[in-house]
Amino acid sequence: MERIYLDHAATSPVHPEVVKAMMPYYEDQFGNPSSIHSFGREARRGLDESREYIARKIGASFEDIIFTSGGTEADNLAIIGYAVANQEKGKHLITTKIEHHGVLHAFEHLEKLGFLVTYIDVDESGRVTPSSIINALKEDTILVSCMFGNNEVGTVQPIKEIGELLKPHQAVFHTDAVQAFGLIPIDVRELGVDFLAVSAHKINGPKGIGFLYANSKQRISPLFFGGEQERKRRAGTENVAGVVGLKRAMEIAYDQLEEKRAMYEEFQRILIHTFQDNKLDFQINGHREAYLPHILNISFPGMNVESILMNLDIEGIAVSSGSACTAGSIDPSHVLTAMFDDKNRSHSAVRFSFGYGLTEEMIKKAAEKTVDVIRRLTK
């Protein structure tokens, strides 16, 4: 049986070219980049070249890039690191109700430390209004966090507008760009963000590596204590092979930006039209103009999402009920709960997400299998 993977928003397969780029740093150029001998210098060269490339691609400076173990650490380092280091300026923070748990749980931790957090509502498309964030600002607000693109419904937030409105205020601006990165061109200066988090495994890079863009003018407290790596902001020997793999994954992603967007939008059309042609009862969740093309979240009213996922898995189709970090949970999605009063909509929502290796034929087959499953469950 052919298996079709439609859960690329959870993680993506590593591109063969990425594996090829990483291998020398496991075999021959394995040195510690902090060592001064030739083995260390070879590893350092790979690290520095990758940092330079990443910085240039997002409009940042070399010293603004901090390599981390992934998006969650990058988010935590920005949010907790900045709040703790700058609490003399104030203890009020702002975020939204639909953030990834890597962000929400960081704010919950800060609340236990005595910080006050305002959680901003979203509309039924999953979007915040810049005015709602600006209206929540206080004199002692020191940080605002709003994700770039949502990992469950794909809605893209008005990051540039928020960044512009925050300029007169002391609050710094953080965005979790884990889902959007590699699909939307990003320039941190144009966006007006001070911190931006990225993870490699969402863009066909390896797991366990990511980076935080941190404006070098902003002071942050480290989460780890040890050596002086990453300009004393993130202790621990750098994952050089992972960093090189991240760079190669970025190169491939940026070379294919337009091509991928067109392909994923066609995949969305195939699924939607197949469901419409077969007269399924379904609702699309998320904004239909400001959206990530690789994510399509659909509710099937009256259906139980666990039954849908199990039956699709039996048919060889891998999809999700939302965030991979809540897999196995019977609780409704916090994102869809924030968007809708209708609990049934969140209990029947399936996320289809696209990526490397998929073809139109695979999508058509997956769409037909989904129709069969929904019809069977309806009976």
UniProtKB/TrEMBL annotation:
InterPro entries cross-referenced by the UniProt entry: Aminotrans_V_dom, Aminotrans_V_PyrdxlP_BS, Cysteine_dSase, PyrdxlP-dep_Trfase, PyrdxlP-dep_Trfase_major, PyrdxlP-dep_Trfase_small
Keyword Iron-sulfur: yes
EC identifiers of the protein: 2.8.1.7
Domain of life according to the entry: Bacteria
Catalysed conversion reaction: (sulfur carrier)-H + L-cysteine = (sulfur carrier)-SH + L-alanine
Entry cofactors: pyridoxal 5'-phosphate
Entry-linked Pfam families: Aminotran_5
UniProt organism field: Evansella cellulosilytica (strain ATCC 21833 / DSM 2522 / FERM P-1141 / JCM 9156 / N-4) (Bacillus cellulosilyticus)
Keyword tags: Aminotransferase, Iron, Iron-sulfur, Metal-binding, Pyridoxal phosphate, Transferase
Aminotransferase class V domain residues: 4-364
Family: Belongs to the class-V pyridoxal-phosphate-dependent aminotransferase family. NifS/IscS subfamily.
Enzyme class (EC, first level): transferase
Keyword Membrane on entry: no
GO MF term list: cysteine desulfurase activity; iron-sulfur cluster binding; metal ion binding; transaminase activity
Protein name: cysteine desulfurase
